[in-house]
Amino acid sequence: MTRFARILCPIDFSPPSEQALRHAEEVARTFGSELVVAHVVEPMIYPVAYGMPPVAPIDYEDAARASAQTALAPIVERLAQAGVKASALVDTGAASMRICELVKDKGFDLVVLATHGYTGLKHVLLGSTAERVVRHCTCPVLTVKVGD
């Protein structure tokens, strides 16, 4: 039987990602796995790239990373109280690319993530992180589709 020693569960704090986290928690509990709950901060495109001065002197990526770390802390604590070995990870980059790189760099055996199930124009405009992860990831990927 396949053993999933290290599980990566990327979340975006949406209700679908919370459901994926519940599935990841169950798999981790079943296999006695380490569960890493991750959030990837997408890079900001600043107006200065278009010849305009920055709107505000704040570094939004640093603020988003700090906010994500703060939001992940109680999730990891709840998992630990439920008997799951868990930790948090915050990274920056294109989400699908960073998730696949994390799998390679940190040796994850399974990725559990939500798919919003967008179709049509929403899919074209918003893309699908889950779809790109499934296509490019080097380990099994469990996608959790949540109804609209």
Give a quick rundown of the structure:
The chain is of the alpha/beta class and 148 residues long. The chain is built from five helices and five strands.
Question: How does this structure look, described?
Answer:
By secondary structure, the chain is of the alpha/beta class. It has a single domain, classed as HUPs (Rossmann fold, 3-Layer(aba) Sandwich). It is built from 5 helices and 5 strands; from the N terminus they run βαβαβαβααβ. The protein has a 5-stranded parallel beta sheet with strand order 3-2-1-4-5, sandwiched between helices. The longest helix has 22 residues, at 60-81. The relative contact order is 0.22. Residues 120-126 have low confidence and may be disordered.
